[in-house]
Design a protein that fits this description.
Number of domains: 2
Number of strands: 3
Strand order of the largest sheet: 1-2-3
Number of helices: 4
Radius of gyration: 17 Å
Order of helices and strands: HHHHEEE
Shape: globular
Distance between the termini: 31 Å
Strand content: 5-15%
C-alpha cells in the first residue's frame, strides 16, 4: 500500500503494518531515518509527525503510529541540547498544502506572506 495508491478506511485482514511503513515511508525517504531520528513514545506524537508527510485513513494511522511508538521510541541521546546564553531564536513551522513536499528557501514578503520552493519539482508556494 504505497503513497500513490488510494487509501482504504480499514486495512484488510492480511494487512502487514511493517510492509505498509516500508512502502509508504520509502516512497519519499530512506527507512534509516527511523533509526536516526529521536523517535516518539506515544502513537499520538507519531501521528502528528505522520500527518505532516502523508494522509492516512484513521485505521492505518492508528496501526502505523502504534507500531512506530513501540519499535522506535524516544531516544534521549538524539534530543537537542539547550545551551544557555542571551540569544533567543523563534522558529515557526507550518504544514505545506502539498504533503511530503519539504519547503526550501522560505522568505517573508513585505506584506508578511511566506513564499517557499518545493524540493521535488518546479514548485513555488505561498502561505
Amino acid at each position: 500500500m504505497g503513497i500513490a495508491q488510494a487509501d482504504v478506511s480499514v486495512p484488510s485482514p492480511d494487512y502487514d503494518v511493517k510492509t505498509d511503513i516500508a512502502e509508504t515511508c520509502s516512497a519519499c525517504h530512506g527507512l534509516r531515518y527511523l533509526d536516526l531520528a529521536q523517535g516518539y513514545d506515544t502513537p499520538q506524537e507519531w501521528s502528528h509527525l505522520i500527518a505532516s508527510m502523508v494522509t492516512l485513513s484513521p485505521a492505518r494511522d492508528e496501526a502505523v503510529s502504534r507500531y512506530l511508538a513501540t519499535n522506535h521510541p524516544h531516544k534521549p541521546s538524539k534530543a537537542p541540547i539547550l545551551v544557555p546564553g542571551s540569544t533567543n531564536i523563534v522558529i515557526d513551522e507550518w504544514i505545506t498544502p502539498t504533503l511530503g513536499q519539504r519547503t526550501r528557501d522560505p522568505i517573508e514578503a513585505p506584506d508578511g506572506a511566506i513564499w517557499w520552493t518545493g524540493m521535488w519539482a518546479s514548485l513555488v508556494g505561498r502561505l
